[in-house]
């Protein structure tokens, strides 16, 4: 069965009331769409990878103790085993191997995308002047965005086979056109 973006967004909104988590879902969708082109099979995967990114935390708000079991079960029931598996593996702490490019990309994009958004929030010009050097400096500050697992950020880039600074630059570039929509553009003039 096919799953389109509109249906996925509707499910996300049914399961997630909070704007912050919806914004995170959208940001990870954006970075996963770009990742499909860079790390994945190409244009034919953009929609699936984007939807996977969008839905990776869909069950977290309502059922945090079951996360990600609800969304994984739903995707499996709907015939999307690859998406379900990637979501089941999107934290290294769950011990599920990252077998496919989709699995590795979701691991590499999720935590770091959230961290980049946090970096944007403390900069007057948001994402417009964000660069890998400043992000790496913030990564060293364990008190900043303390909930972000730095080891997972490192392992994500490692599993993709890219330098962390290059992956940071790639994600910044992917997010930049969506700065206003994601609330990370800052106070710079249009």
What does this structure look like?
This protein has one domain: Hypothetical protein af1432, CATH 1.10.3210. The model has no long low-confidence stretch (mean pLDDT 95). It has helices at residues 5-15, 19-38, 46-55, 69-77, 81-88, 101-121, 132-140, 150-160, 164-175, 179-182. By secondary structure, the protein is an all-alpha fold.
Topology (SSEs and partners):
Elements lengths: L4 H11 L3 H20 L7 H10 L13 H9 L3 H8 L12 H21 L10 H9 L9 H11 L3 H12 L3 H4 L8
What would you say about this model in short?
The chain has about 190 residues and is mainly α. Helices cover about 60% and strands about 0% of the residues. It has one domain (about 5-180): Orthogonal Bundle (Hypothetical protein af1432), CATH 1.10.3210.
Secondary structure category: mainly alpha
The global form is globular
Helix segment tally: 10
Low-pLDDT regions: none
The ordered string of helix (H) and strand (E) elements is: HHHHHHHHHH
Ends apart, CA distance between termini: 41 Å
Number of domains: 1
| Fold-level CATH name | Hypothetical protein af1432
CATH class: Mainly Alpha
- Helical percentage: 55-70%
Major sheet, described briefly? none
């Amino acid at each position: 069965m096919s799953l389109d973006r509109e249906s996925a967004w509707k499910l996300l909104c049914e399961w997630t009331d909070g704007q912050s988590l919806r914004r995170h879902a959208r940001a990870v969708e954006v970075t996963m769409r770009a990742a499909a082109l860079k790390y994945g099979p190409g244009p034919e995967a953009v929609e699936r990878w984007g939807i996977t990114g969008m839905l990776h935390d869909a069950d977290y708000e309502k059922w945090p103790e079951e996360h990600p079991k609800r969304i994984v079960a739903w995707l499996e029931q709907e015939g999307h085993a690859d998406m379900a598996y990637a979501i089941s593996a999107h934290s290294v702490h769950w011990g599920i191997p990252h077998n496919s490019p989709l699995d590795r990309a979701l691991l590499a994009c999720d935590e770091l995308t959230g961290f980049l958004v946090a970096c944007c929030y403390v900069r007057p010009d948001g994402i417009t002047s964000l660069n890998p050097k400043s992000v790496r400096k913030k990564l060293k500050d364990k008190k900043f965005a303390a909930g972000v697992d730095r080891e997972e950020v490192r392992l994500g880039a490692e599993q993709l086979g890219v330098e962390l600074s290059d992956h940071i630059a790639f994600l910044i570039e992917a997010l930049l056109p969506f700065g206003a929509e994601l609330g990370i553009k800052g106070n710079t003039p249009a």
